[in-house]
Amino acid sequence: MKTLTTLLASTGLVLSLGAAASAQENATVAFLMPDQASTRYEQHDYPGFKAEMEKLCASCTVIYQNANADVSLQQQQFNSVIAQGAKVIVLDPVDSAAAAALVEIAQSQDVKVIAYDRPIPDKPANYYVSFDNQGIGKAIAQSLVDHLKAKGVPDGAGVLEINGSPTDAAAGLIRDGIHEALSASSYKTLAEFDTPEWAPPKAQEWTAGQITRFGDQIKGIVAANDGTGGGAIAALKAAGVKDMPPVTGNDATIAALQLIISGDQYNTISKPSEIVAAAAAKVAVALLKGETPEATHKLYETPSQLFVPAVVTAENIKAEIFDKGINKPEEVCTGEYADGCRKLGIIK
Question: Which among 341, 228, 314, 272 has a CA at the least distance from the CA of 117?
């Protein structure tokens, strides 16, 4: 009798494992990104996700689509991948509020949703993978505050704040982190702007207006990412500002790294998207197997994994970017930036 019970238990286990394997085999997973304003999705996120999926589930089909900042288009893409049989959807939403309805649609059809980079506050997804966005905002702002202090900028001096898209919950978290650092500092915020669609031209246009309004009262600019930071720098240059205030960023794009090397941008955040993309692939495969992925955090009632990034300035750009192999010198130290790279010891 004991032998029969053991045999049945063993057989049940085999059947369970077999069901899990078949659920994963030949499964379809969708990777839906929000916009093309940043080059990261095509250059880093999707390649990183696809590479990890190929390691973990070679027979799985990965569908990649980008909504180009169009909420309606992303809704169509979402419905389309469900119709194509996607069992897990990795979603970086154009509009975090509108994405709640998408999560509800998916879960009603037993399709799992992994919120990616941008959280979905109004409806818990099955999992959330990102860098610590509030931590990013606090880090870039605190780095700027420390820099202003070190340069002897007096208490009460003014800074501008350029946030990300008002429809992006991650941008809201970055903004909260910026507020946290600035409110604890001795500096004051002259003006603040939420940049529609994270569009650099809109950040540039707003900054140009603030330069006319405040002039040399602007002692620093906290920009939520490299695109908006680049827009601010373009406005400063167009206005002929000679004593350039330090400008922050986030994403460590090649353009931003070059601006740091040239001295036009003060900092950025190194957050190799491949890290988060690979983590999302691991979670997707676990969900396909019917497993419960481990979580290190809980955000908006969603099990989450949040990675801690590094602040990059001219002082540590060689160690954080080039020594770690995130970018190669030949990708960044081109043309006019070669001399700056030599001064920082990146190239000889």
Answer: 272
